[in-house]
Amino acid sequence: MSSVSAYRHVVRDASPDLAEVVADAYRRHRDEVYRLALRFGAGRRSWAEDVTQDVFVALCRTAHRITRNPDDPDDLRPWLYRVTANRSIQKLRRDKVRSAPGVRWLLRHMRGTEPTLDDVIVHRDDLRAAMETLRELPAKERVVFCMYHLDGLDMVEIGHALGHSKGYICKLIHRARARIETAGWEVDRD
Amino acid sequence: MTEPRPFLSALHGVDRALAQERLGASANHRIAGQMAAQLRTSPARRWLPAVAFAAGAAVAVAAVGSRLRSDAPIASIPTAPAVSGFFLSGDACDRQSTGTAVRLRGACRARPDHGRLEVQTFPAETALVAARPDGVELREGRALFNVNDAAPNDPVHVTVPGGTIEVFGTKFFVDTTSNRGHVDLIEGKIRFLHQDGPVTQVAPGDRFEWSLVPRPVAAPGVVPPTAVEAVAPAIPKPRRQHVRRAPAPTVGDLVDEIRDMRREGRYHEAARRLEKALKGKLEPRVREVLSYELGDILTRRLNDREPACTHWAEHRARFPGGRYESPVRRAQRGLSCEGHE
């Protein structure tokens, strides 16, 4: 059965074809979701794998409720993009909580739960430094900044994806820009 | 005064570097398993056979390798085999089947056939686990459990010597020997069912300890220890983790160690460790990388100007025109290291 015909059968009711839809979406988009998460996680592989897992498990949970376009085999892409961005923000925030002194005390014997050793190796020094700077940004600023400057989304689109107003997105981008400039970079306009 | 560097072009470069990345085989295995588990509990249980098959096939796609075309017919690929009732993943995972159980050594992820939870072990740790129809049994060792398929009327059970941990959807860490152990609840909800009957609720962030060694006080009607009591000073401190190290750690070990220290903010310790390593015998290329790392920590993390300037001067003398020449110069300018050349 082709993937396209599987999509045609997707309706609100649970259907055996939904299994194929989920598997097909996973096969089509897993690397894309992973790379997106890898960017938001500033190069941490395990971190990105966890986000990818969260996103596709969420898809399994909600696939039957998502309104589909039977003519577009990639119609799940925006949903996956939006959920990846939101899950990344949530996870970055959880990480921040876990790095609090009290929680670190609790988790001290669990070194390795968040490996950083598997960072993607970026050989060029300027890229490595940029990744470090990105890693220093707060969760939402990091994600919004990447969506704006790397994916070319406008503020309204970002706000729609993350559930915020255009004004707030604008503020986040400006804050991120200020932090980056403080770190010794020039944020040139695209 | 350092000239500002263009961030966006560097960020685009980072993005291009990341675009080469693909999801690894073990991660594929794990994610496909979690998806199958999720679908199994969804309202549409009738998807299960097809989904389990699709998930298994997706795993196999990864196992066979990314060389396979993404549009290869999913049904033509076999599923990965299970070991003692577990699907195992982890590139640095050593597993040994002991019949009904499997002993995991190193960084492993194990998912029982029923897929209701995942057991994760860590480098230099071991755990002896056995699959059970309603969960798993941890006979010995230390492991993190991640349960996402449990409901109030259908909990997952993790059996340990001394009792059973009843899980309602959560993440927790267990450390047990044959006669004592503890569980740290990170998030979610669990309760500990003692072998002899009492039940103890454990709150997120709390540690609960148990022991098969009889307590000195055995007054009738004694209330079972709460999680708060379990972390009271009277309870012995958790044992220190002894990590066996090879006599001569490899560069990989050293890099691992430094990264851990950086992650935990132990910059002074990292600097000392690097200084010690740099006194030893190293390949020139490795020495240059470690030397740069040390300078970076002294400059950006410890803000220790004098040692940093001295270090950068030595670094440039030792590696003239090296691969880090440009960032080292920038660091020297930033620190105003005139006079240390």
Notes on the protein architecture:
- The complex is a heterodimer of chains A (190) and B (341).
- Helices cover 66% and strands 1% of the residues of chain A.
- Chain A has helices at 3-8, 16-40, 45-62, 77-98, 101-106, 125-136, 139-149, 155-162, 166-182, and one strand at residues 185-186.
- The N and C termini of chain A lie far apart (44 Å).
- The model of chain A is unreliable at 1-14 and 111-118 (pLDDT under 50).
- Chain B is an alpha+beta fold and 341 residues long.
- In chain B, 35% of the residues lie in helices and 27% in strands.
- Chain B contains nine helices and eleven strands.
- In chain B, strands 2, 3, 4, 5, 6, 7, 8, 9, 10 and 11 form a ten-stranded mixed beta sheet that branches.
- In chain B, helix 2 packs antiparallel against helix 3 (48-64), helix 6 (267-279) packs antiparallel against helix 7 (284-301) and helix 8 runs antiparallel to helix 9.
- Chain B starts with a strand and ends in a 6-residue tail after the last helix.
- The chains are: A mainly alpha (190), B alpha+beta (341).
- At the A-B interface, helix 2, helix 3, helix 5, helix 6 and strand 1 of A face strand 1, helix 1, helix 2, helix 3 and helix 5 of B.
